[in-house]
Each structure stands twice: as C-alpha cells, then as structure tokens.
Design a protein that fits this description.
705 residues, alpha+beta, 5-stranded antiparallel sheet, 4-stranded antiparallel sheet, 16 helices, 26 strands, elongated
C-alpha cells in the first residue's frame, strides 16, 4: 500500500510541476500579447513511463511557435516597405521644393515672370524702371534656381548622413545578435528555456530587415546565421561583421568586414539603406541634373537673344567666355553670315566687317566693299586687319575679345537670311559668349562643336578616374585612363581610350554638335561619374570632364553657378534692348536706336523657341521649347512623387498582410491562452488535491499503527 501511495504522490507532484510550468508559459504569453515581434511560447509535455507503467508527466521543452517561411516573407515585406517609404518621403520633399506649378510663387512660374518683364520692357525700351524690373526678374529666377539646387544637394547629403546612422545601428544589432546567439546556444545545450532570448533575437531581426534585406538561416543550437541578399556573411557562429559606408563619385559603397576576413562589398537589396542609396546616388542627382539642364537652356535662349542685340549706346568692349578650344578650330566649324560693326555714340556705323563663313575658308567684306579671302587659322589676324584702327580683336585663354577705340562701341548681328552657326548650331556672338546677359563660374554648355577629328588639346600624362555604378547607385568598378605620350592627337583618340578603360559596361560617343554622351550597355542601367580628373586643357584651362560635362554631378552644378553680368547688374541701362540695323551703311543713318525694343522682345519670346535638351536623368534628349520642357519636368516630378506614394501604400499593405499571416501562426490568441490558463489552473488544483489525498492516506495509516 505504501508503494502505491508513493507512486500516486510522485505522479501528482510531476503533474503539479508541469501545470506550474504551463501556467508560467501561458502567463508570459498573455503578458506579451502586445509586444511587437513576440512569438508565443509552446510547452511540449510527455508521459513518464517507469517499468512499463505510467509514472506521471514531464515538460520536454519550451519552444517558440515560430514559422521560418512566414518569418522570411514578413522580413522581406518589411524591407521593401521601408524602402518604398524612404523613396516617397524624399520625392515628396523634392516636389515641395519646386512648388505647385499652378502657383505664382512656384519655381517654374518665376521664369514666366522673366518673360513678362522683358515683354513690358520691349514696350517702353527707354524706361529705366522696366529695364530694372527685367534685370531683377532674371536675378530672382537665378537666385531661386541656385537655392533649389542647394536644397536638392542638401537632400543628397542627408541621405548619406542617414545611411551612416543606419550603418551604426546595424553594427549594434549585429553585435547584439552575436551575443544572443551565444546565450541561446548555452541555454539550449544545458536543456533550458531559450525562448525569451529567441524572441529578442526575432525582434532584432525585424529591425535589421527594415534597414537592409537579409537572409536568415537557423543553426542547430537555436541561433541564426544572417547574410545579406547577395550572400555576404553578417553574423553567425563566427561572430558579427562590421559594416561601413563610403562614396566614390556618384556611387555608394556598403562593405562588410567579417571577424576573420577582409572587407567585401555588400548589396543592401532593399530596406532603408537601399532606398537611401538609390535616392542619394541616382534619383536626386538625376533631378538636380534635370533642373540644371532646364535652367541652362533657359539661360542659353535668353543669352542667344541678348547676343543678337545691343545696348544703346553700344558697349566699348565685348568679352567672350572660355570656349575651351583654339580659335581656328572653332571658326572652321562655322557657316553663314554675321556682321561686326563699330558704332559711335549716336548709333551710326563707323566701321563694318561682314563675315561669310565656309569652314576652313571664309571671306570678309569691309565697309560694304568687296570681299577678301581668309582662313580659319588666320582669322584673328585677318579680322584685325579688317577692323583697322576702329577696333582690335584678341583671343587669350580661350576667350575672344573685341574692343572699339575712340569712345565708340561694338555691336554684332547675324544675317537674317543665312545667319551664322557654329558646329554646335549657335550663332557667332553666342558661341563665343561676347554679349551674354547671364554668366557662369563653370562651363555650362557641353555642345562643344568639336568633332572626333578635332585636335586633342589635353597634354599627355593627365589621368581621368571614372566610377561605374549600377541602377541602384551601388559601385561596380573604377576605370582609369591616362592620356598617352603618343598617338592621342585627336579627340577620337581620347574617346577610344576612355571606352577601352570601361570595357563592356558602355561607351562614350560624340554627337554632331560635339556633345559627349555615355551609352550604357543594353538594359544594364550603368551610369558613370568622375572620381578625379587632373587633365588640363591647353586652350584656356579646365579639365576634360568639365569641358564635356561627364557625369550627373558635374552637370548638376550649373543651376547654382549663374548670375547677371556684373556691369549690367550695376547698370540696367546696359541691357541689350535694341538690334543692329544691317540695312544701314557706314556713315549713314543710325544703326542703333534707343527706342528700339526688338532685343527685349526677342528675350521675352525666347522661352517659346525650340532648342535641344540633352539626356538628363530619366528624361530623354528632346527638341522642345523651354516652356514646354518646364511643363514636362514639372509633370515628371509630380508623377514620380505620386507613383512613389502609391508604391509606399502598396508595400505597406503587403507588409501588413505578411505580418498578419505571421501573427496568426506565431502570435498570441488571448481567448485561447485564457482557456489554457483555466485548464492548467484546474490541473494544478487537481494535482494539489491528489497530493492532499495521498497525505491524508499516509496519516490514516500512521494512526492505524
């Protein structure tokens, strides 16, 4: 009898312990019902068998109700949702910088104000007030463009700062995961309950997946091995890798250094970092490039009209901008006719030189007389001979200057029937920038007019380092090209050398207007940027990549570089409001009149003239007016921001659904847990009564002795 009572007592005690453990597990589940990432605990129990007979119950183990498939789906959806959120946030900020195109205070509306101001000035060309208004409106537009460019640049810098902050967070998470892996392994080997540590592990994995896409593989001891989307080791039994982030050109480089090994580049895949890298290295630079292309073409068209006009009285000196090539090379690309006139204070011509370009040869007619032949290579000498004592021309450091003598002024106008045109399509005065209204601190026109046969003006030894990036903004490789000591006599030789250095990733080419473009390999999404360039142009300085505007970063600087010509800013009376009357002769009637507003009218209408826009970001090369391009750019920005917001909402919905499916398996069901709690409490109570009954039986037996 005693043995039987002992058996009952042992069975009851095991049941009591088991019920107590089950109540503890259920209580923990209930307490964590609202804890993000918590997976409910499940205790497995089994019968104790001794000598073929039941001897009670035992807890085999306490595990988490985790589902690896649903966890993977949830982590991936979370990563994609975070990336979409980053994209939407930054594009919304960028769109806000431009403003609502329908609002009169928006950036694009300011250019309309410029055209309106010139139209008003054309109606009253002698009014100082309307001239000042026109100059002020241009200045306001340029200041707005510069501010907008700076704000976009600040957004780009912000993405890099946020990436570095995310990398710091990731390194902290990886270090915690490494320690938790060790804790779980020790607890598991000792037969303890590691579910608490595993829940902490799961929460850290959720945080990590929001920052970058990961692959998670459980280890036999309950830990995890985490790798990036491209398989790079992040954390596991070997410990934690250390991540770092840097930039090269317009590329982002994310690297991971494992505990035993060297640093290797890592692909973020998706998540915060992937979104920030693409935004900071691809999308925002593309938007800055589009802004600069728009502003540059608006300025080019205004300058074209200003170069075709003249102030009254005419300026004593016309000083051009640096064209980055020899005068002979530039002149050999011209065709058509233009006239250089020296006029006195009353606007009457005192000297007239009519130029008729024809490539390597041209003719010059002086004061309406017979034309004499000249060559492109001797252009400067021939022009000075034709001008005589009335004016002088010089070409220094890539700049053409024409100065009148005796208190007179210089004015230039193209023939109305066959106007002059350089190899890039610009008129004589505009090509050389002789009478620009707006000037820049950097090279802004990449239509150089240089063909592949043009002479190379970059001495041997200069090196160009380029960075190749993929469509996500991640670095692929660097390419370097050094101008050789022999054989590189033409621009084609330089282009061929660059193409050899970048291999199969793409190629550079020169179009008919001398603009160099990078053509990525089919469907590769590869882009190129400049890491360094120490080449020096022998014709006026500057390096090779700035001459051709290689890379979005270089082209993006243009929008912030413009300003009104200093003498016009100081005195709006020098604004070119009139146009030279080529029907007048030397000593005849006035060729310039103060009541002439044709120059202002031409500037007012410049936004409606078709011009060639280069590829900028994801906007293709197109020939449209500045006003039409503004509409397309504004629409594109709005569309991208709208699409990003839709993608954000869709990704968030997918993530919510994935989390819900995971929670339906791993999460805590309050009703179920309360039922379990009641059951385990009743079991505990029953085992307690069984122990009490066994005690009573012992006492009864003792009293019988």
């Amino acid at each position: 009898m005693g043995g039987s009572i002992n058996d009952v007592l042992s069975i009851a005690t095991s049941g009591l312990r088991t019920a107590q453990s089950l109540v503890s597990v259920t209580s923990d589940n209930i307490a964590n019902v609202n804890t993000p990432g918590y997976a409910r605990k499940v205790a497995s129990q089994s019968e104790i068998v001794a000598n073929g007979a039941g001897a009670g119950v035992q807890i085999d183990g306490i595990v988490r109700a985790a589902n690896q498939f649903l966890q993977t789906a949830s982590l991936q959806a979370n990563s994609q949702s975070r990336q979409a959120s980053v994209n939407s946030s930054y594009l919304d900020q960028a769109q806000a910088l431009f403003g609502d195109p329908s609002n009169s205070n928006s950036f694009f509306s300011q250019l309309d104000s410029v055209y309106s101001a010139f139209a008003s000035a054309a109606n009253t060309p002698s009014s100082n007030l309307t001239r000042s208004d026109a100059v002020n409106s241009v200045n306001a537009f340029l200041a707005s463009a510069s501010g907008l460019s700076g704000n976009l640049d600040q957004l780009q810098k912000q993405t890099n700062q946020q990436i570095n902050a995310d990398v710091t967070t990731i390194n902290g998470i990886l270090d915690q995961l490494s320690h938790i892996n060790g804790d779980i392994s020790r607890i598991t080997v000792a037969g303890g309950d590691a579910s608490g540590s595993q829940n902490s592990q799961s929460q850290l994995l959720n945080q990590l997946a929001g920052l970058m896409q990961i692959q998670v593989q459980p280890t036999p001891t309950g830990g995890v091995t985490v790798r990036s989307t491209d398989g790079s080791y992040l954390v596991g039994d070997q410990g934690a890798s250390v991540l770092s982030y840097s930039t090269s050109g317009s590329s982002g480089i994310l690297t991971a250094t494992p505990p035993k090994g060297s640093a290797q580049q890592v692909r973020a895949g998706s998540g915060d970092i992937a979104g920030l890298m693409k935004m900071g290295q691809v999308d925002l630079p593309a938007l800055s490039s589009q802004l600069s292309e728009f502003v540059s073409k608006a300025v080019d068209q205004i300058n074209a009209a200003h170069n075709a006009s003249s102030s009254v009285p005419a300026p004593s000196t016309l000083t051009g901008s640096n064209i980055g090539q020899s005068l002979g090379t530039a002149i050999s690309g011209f065709s058509g006719k233009t006239t250089i006139a020296v006029v006195d204070a009353s606007g009457t011509m005192v000297k007239r030189v009519d130029l008729n370009f024809g490539g390597a040869t041209l003719t010059m007619a002086v004061d309406g007389g017979g034309a004499s032949g000249a060559t492109a290579s001797s252009f400067l000498t021939s022009l000075n001979t034709a001008l005589g004592s009335a004016a002088t021309a010089s070409f220094v450091n890539g700049q053409l200057t024409i100065s009148a003598t005796g208190g007179n002024g210089v004015a230039i106008a193209d023939d109305s029937t066959t106007p002059s045109a350089g190899a890039n399509g610009e008129g004589f005065s505009q090509f050389f920038g002789l009478n620009n209204l707006v000037e820049s601190t950097v090279n802004t026109s990449y239509n150089t007019g240089l063909t592949g046969a043009a002479p190379n003006t970059f001495p041997a030894g200069g090196t160009i380092a380029l960075q190749l990036s993929d469509a996500t903004g991640a670095a692929i490789r660097q390419a370097s090209f050094t101008i050789p000591t022999s054989g590189a006599t033409t621009m084609s030789a330089i282009v061929n050398g660059l193409n050899q250095s970048i291999g199969a990733y793409g190629s550079f080419s020169l179009d008919s207007k001398g603009q160099m473009t990078f053509n990525p390999a089919a469907n590769s999404g590869v882009s190129v940027s400049v890491v360094s360039d120490n080449t020096v142009n022998s014709q006026g300085g500057g390096n090779f990549t700035s001459l051709y505007g290689i890379g979005a970063a270089i082209r993006s600087t243009r929008a912030a570089s413009y300003s009104i010509r200093t003498d016009i800013a100081a005195n709006p009376a020098k604004l070119a409001m009139a146009q030279l009357d080529l029907n007048q002769t030397v000593g005849g009637g006035p060729a310039l009149g103060s009541g002439d507003g044709r120059g202002a009218q031409a500037m007012a209408q410049s936004g409606d003239l078709a011009t060639d826009f280069a590829v900028a970001g994801d906007m293709a090369a197109v020939r449209v007016s500045v006003s039409d391009y503004a509409s397309e750019l504004a629409g594109m920005i709005g569309t991208k921001a709208g699409n990003a917001d839709n993608a954000k909402q869709s990704a968030a919905a997918v993530s919510t659904q994935a989390d819900a499916q995971r929670a339906s398996v791993e999460g805590v069901n309050m009703d179920e847990e309360l039922v379990n709690l009641t059951t385990y409490q009743q079991s505990y109570s029953a085992c307690s009564r069984l122990i009490q009954a066994s005690s009573d039986m012992f006492n009864t037996l003792l009293q019988m002795i």
